[in-house]
Amino acid sequence: MKISARNTLKGTIIEIVKGATTSHVRIDIGGAVVTASITNEAVDDLKLERGKQAYAVIKASDVMVGID
What we know:
Mop_domain; molybdenum; 4 strands; Mo/tungstate-bd_C_term_dom; 47% strand; globular; TOBE domain-containing protein; Transp-assoc_OB_typ1; CATH 2.40.50.100; mainly beta; 68 residues
């Protein structure tokens, strides 16, 4: 796979929760969990399922910083 985004995190799908039109896909990336909201159609097209390896691809125009 080659893509232009540089922020890719490889992990394992631990949960897929399908809603009416979108799914929440949770990916464990070594102890941290990233959740993506994607269409149900994308889940089906990619044949996503629990236990399968996948990449969380992060493309953001802004990064926010917070402190306690």
